[in-house]
Structure formats: C-alpha cells, structure tokens
Amino acid sequence: MSAPISFEAPRGMRDFYPEDMVWRNRIFDAWRAAAERFGFKNYDACVVESLELLQRKSGEEVSEQIYAFEDKSGRKLALRPEMTPTLARMVAARQSRLPFPIKWYTMAQCFRYERMTRGRKREHYQLNMDIIGSDEILCEAEILGAAVAAMREMGLPDTAWHIHVSSRALLGELLAKSGIPQDQHPAVFIALDKRGKISDEEIASLLRNEGLNDEAIAKTFELLAVTSLEGAAALAGEDSPALADLRKLFAMADEMGYGEILMFDIAVIRGLSYYTGIVFEAFDAQRKFRAIFGGGRYDSLLALVGGQPTPAVGMGFGDVVVGEVLRDLLGETCPIQRDGYLIGYMTDEQRPAALKLTAKLRAEGHKVDLSLVAQKPKHFFGKSGNSSALEAIYIGPDDLTAGAVQVKNLETREQRTLAL
Amino acid sequence: MSAPISFEAPRGMRDFYPEDMVWRNRIFDAWRAAAERFGFKNYDACVVESLELLQRKSGEEVSEQIYAFEDKSGRKLALRPEMTPTLARMVAARQSRLPFPIKWYTMAQCFRYERMTRGRKREHYQLNMDIIGSDEILCEAEILGAAVAAMREMGLPDTAWHIHVSSRALLGELLAKSGIPQDQHPAVFIALDKRGKISDEEIASLLRNEGLNDEAIAKTFELLAVTSLEGAAALAGEDSPALADLRKLFAMADEMGYGEILMFDIAVIRGLSYYTGIVFEAFDAQRKFRAIFGGGRYDSLLALVGGQPTPAVGMGFGDVVVGEVLRDLLGETCPIQRDGYLIGYMTDEQRPAALKLTAKLRAEGHKVDLSLVAQKPKHFFGKSGNSSALEAIYIGPDDLTAGAVQVKNLETREQRTLAL
To answer: How far apart are CA A298 and CA A300, in angstroms?
Structure first.
C-alpha cells in the first residue's frame, strides 16, 4: 500500500454531501423557477475558457485571480472567474441571426484564486440573467423582478433585504457638473468602489493620483453624501436623462409589485469598469453579509470583445452569500419536504412482491426508497425515522396471504390499507 | 482597438445555446427524475480535484488524458476525468458516520484530453449513481432500474436498446478453470477489453506478453464465444457463485419490469481495472453508437483510496452518446412544449396594465414573456410564431377601456376573454 491520500477537497473547493445539496438545490430550484417564469431562456458554456477572452474584458483585479493553465498543445486556458465574457463571445458569434432582444440565463460555476480569509471559497455558482439588444429600462425592471421572485421562492421575506440602486450615468453627469472631465470618470468609479474597504484618505489620495485637484475631490465626496433621488435631482437638474431612467425603474418596480424593496443609494458603483447606466446591489437589511447579487447596464461590452455595439443589462447572483443569509434567517436545518414511500420486507420470500409494488409506484411517478435487505419490522420502522419518505410500507408473510399491506404515514402515524 | 478575439469555445469544449439546452435539459431532467424516484440522494463536488487522488485510482490510459495544472501555491490540481475517485474520497472522509448502505447520485462535468477524432469532445456531463455498503445484487438491480427509468423518461422505447451484462467474477472463475492464474486476470481483462479496437492477433500477442501460453490464449478466446447464461453455466458449473448472482439479477429485472432489456454478453469487460463483480454496458440495438452507459460492482475501490473495505456498485451515464441516440431516433428538432403567456402592448400608456397583469400571472406560477417595447398588433402577432408560449395577450387602448383582454391560444388559434 502507498501513503494515505487526503480525504479533503482541494483548498477552497467545496464538497456537497446530500445534506448540503438540500440547501444548494433550494437555491438552484428557486433561481431556475424565477428565471423561467420571467421568460429567460437557459444557456450554458464550459467552465474552461480562453485566457485571452477573460483578460480582454476583466478589470485588472480579477485578472490576477484567474486560475490559468496550458493544455498539452500550449493553448492558454483558464477556469472562468465570471460568465459575462463567455456570454459576450457567444452572442457576438451569432450576432447576425439571434432574435434580439434576447433574455438568457445560466447557473454557472466560477473560480477565483483568492486569499482564503474568513471562509471565502475559490469557487461558487452564479445565476446570470442578461437581456441583450434593448435600451428600454423595462430590461432592468424585468431582471430585478426575476431576482425578487427568486428571493421570495427561497422563502426570504421582502423586509429582510433591499436592492440598492444607482446609476453610473447619473454619477457621470454629476461628476461632469463638478468639473471632473469624462476621461477621469472610470478611475473615479474604481476609487469610489473601494469605499468601506480603505479609508477616505486613501481614496482621496487615489483620486489625487488620477489628477483630481482638492476641490474636485471634495465635490466627489459631497456627491456621495446624497441620500435620495430627490437630492440627486436637485444636483442633476430635472432634465437629466439618467434621473429619468431611474424614476422609470422605480415606477415599474411599483407596478410589478416590488417597489418597496428598491432604494436609491448613490454609493453603489460596482467594481468592474464596464457598466454604463443603472447599477444595483442587494444586501440583507442588517448589512451583516456581503452583496447578495449585483449588476447593471453594460452597453459597451459586446463591442469590447469585438462584436457590434449592443445595449445590454445583466446581473450575477452567487450561491454563497444568499446561502449564509438563508441560514441566518431560517436556521441551519433545511426543513424536510416529506415525499414518497419507504418499502421493506421481512424475508427474501417477500422480496419479489416488494419489487413489483416498488416498480408499480415508481411507474406512477412516486419516489420509492426500497430496502436493500430483508429486515425485521422493528429494525425497519426503527430506521424509518431518518427517512424523508412520507409513507412506509412493510411486507411480511401474512400480507402476501392477505393480498394487502398497511401503509403508515410517517408524519401523522395514521395507517391505511393498500391492495397488492 | 486591439486584435479581434475568436468567438469560438476553446477546442473540444461545448457552448450550449438555448436550442441546445432544450436537448440537454431533456436528458438532465430525465436523469434527475429517475434517480430521485429510485431514492438516490444528490451529492456533488468541485470539478477541480487533487491530481494525486485521480492518479491513485485511474487506469494508466486515463492518467495520460488528465487536464492537470498547478495553482499559485504549487498545489497539483486537475479537472476530474470521472467522478468515482471523488465519491470514494468523500465517503472515506465520513466512513464512520454515514448511514450505510447509501444511494447517491450526481450529474458531474468530467474532462478528458483526447485527440479530437470524429467530433469527440474533451468535456461531457455524466450521471453517476452509486450504492455503497451493500453486497446484495438488489443494488445492481436498483441502479439498472433507475437507468432504464431515465431512458424511458427521455422517450426512448425499450426495443431501441439493450443492457449487456456480464460478470468479472464469472470470467475470473472461467479463466481459473482454464488454468490461468488469478494474478494474470487483471491483465487479461484489459487485453480483452480492447476487442473490436485492435485485432484478435494483437490481443493474443498482448496475452502472450502477460505470460499466457498458446493453450491458455486459445481457451480465453473460447470463453468469449459463449453467448448465453446457460452456455456459461455449462462451463462454470451450477455451483458457481458468480452465476448465481447473474441469475438473481435477471430474475429481479423481470420482477421490476425491465427483464426484456437485459442480455447476457460475456464480452463486456469495462476497461478500468477496479471492477470485481457484475459489469454492464448499454448499447443502441443497431450498435451504431458507443456505449450509452456502463458500470458494475467495485468492492475494492474504497480501500484503494485509503478507506475501509466496503462493497459498492456504480454506473456512469454520459450526455453525449445518449444525445446522439435521441436525435437519431427522434429527429434533430426537439418538440416544443408550449407553456405560459406572451404579453404585448400597443403604446407606453398600456405598459403599466401589461406590467400588472404580467406580475399577477407570474405570482400565480405562470411563465410570462413580456414584450420589452410597445408594438403594433401586426408586429406582435407576427413574432408570436417564434414563441414557445401557449397563449398570447395583447393590450391596446380599447382593452383598457373595456377592462378585459383577448387571450389567443397560439396552438389552436382559439380566443378567450380575460378580465383585467
């Protein structure tokens, strides 16, 4: 025998035992149900992507965190850190024949090589929903509506969280009014996005490095003190197109029944630099956790990877943070949904009858967990406590003679008779 | 602007556009439904695995085909070529507290760095079902029964395919009776598995290299000429334990309603060397395609990765071959399942009413594809032909006045009235 192997998953990677999958499937099922209900079509692509594509699009921070490798032909490949570059590639490849606007979703595994602090993982799954080919604000409203539907489907009450909404375009207008030239805006966005992670002094120093003078820096921080859409309107003016877009989104959210969840928050920036319009991030009401989901309008991405310029809105919704929020709110144990049958038998002589009954129930669409060995009734019912079945059927010699079995409800303990 | 990027997926990797996902989801949904109905519990693990674990278990052929790479700490990682080593690791890690026997399933992406011949891909998805901790032949019967249920769920008739069943243990008994010592059996299995890929002369030469004399080689080929369980019984003797196991499996398959699909086929070997008992492979009836699924009993794998010796049966069922079989049988176009609503509106004035109706229908659980822009009725109904919705609702100014809309069935063209 050779040396023992570690039974642990590689560092930062997750194993999902059946009890973990109950949680994961709760999230995945809610994602799928919401996206389908909102008319998004499912797509997918391999987790292995060309490194060049990922580097072209990503901000520099992500680029350092990419798991890159070469295949045996020297091809430079990587495990994708996010789905959007792949989506842009797939859309660009068929740009002349796709029926725009398209509404697509996927649930994609993504990798980041991060320092392993505070239990952060190096891989996660992410629901991505995107609408490509329309500049209507209804796109933003549909995407946020689908995210709200997913949160409700998971059992999270509307009061437990908020969607913080801002607009890159609005902040751009306001920065321009403060005398900060357009070409400095991307750097300002990146600097402001670090707020909370580094001190305001450090941000000011970053802005100074970008060529902003002290007055412009002071004005930038003043903008961040705006706390309402009305406050923003006072600065931007009522004729601001970005303000009109935000107002439209809030009105639509009301009409679609989730206006209460939305709040204006000028501090939402989104780190990556490709957003162009409305941006949003969802947080638990107590701000105990990182962002649950986030996204926005990115009208210039397709051109960036080489496609035709095309308006687009998208969001990413990871499984890790929402899992933490769910457990924090609902407790560690995911409630069992009892379902189907547990079937046992006393000796091998009753096994053929058990097999036939099992096959019949399964053919009718029922879930049946069939005992793999003959068991005494005490042993069978003793183990039934661990089962997620709704009803238990035990077949003994007398049942075969009688041609009927007792069906025991494991929740209510009631019994009924079933003809064999 | 920099040089254009290729819009293709990396070589051997697959993109799934929505029309491809219809097929993929047909397969995945059938896998999930069948495994759940048979009482298997879902598990999963990251596609990145430690290289050492994969090399420990895999046959030499697979080992050369592994996508291996190092992370930035010099950890040797790989994209798994199969799920079984990961399953063995996860089970070994909790061997003292898992409620054996366990029935687990997963739908896992797996990678092989293969030569790109005849459209073979470098990644695929695989349903894995395993029962660990029981030596009952009912385990084999349950796993095959679940695979049959998945095939039926996909719409494949029972007559379109067969499960070829043999037994490593039986072949071992027969080889021993032919005077071939136990320690040469693994090499004989690997040589015989190459049948059909290389000539019988080349196999004979491989066997000669393993130390078999001409008589033993002739006897080995004689065994492969056995075509029925009765023929095998004549050679093995009625007291053969391996024969008894096979007979038990055929009887259970009859009782479970899939006996007609099973056939004895002594030529089924399974390349990888860790199988110990019954082995099986499914093929389309015309043998046009590669194996649809395969597996068997592997009682020594857990000990191989460092766990306690534990009996186990498992199978792998890839998405590529069954997809080819499905398309061959059912045609290239996956039939549309019409579902839900398509909603449009004439001007932005009707949009709030459309949004409210949409929100109401979605809250009731319906799928609604809402037009992102106001459209003339001609344009709206013209595009409805491409939709998979069952009913179309168009809201014009008169409908708002009337307080009711027409609902048009896109299949039957019938109309009904719905109050707003």
So the answer is: 6
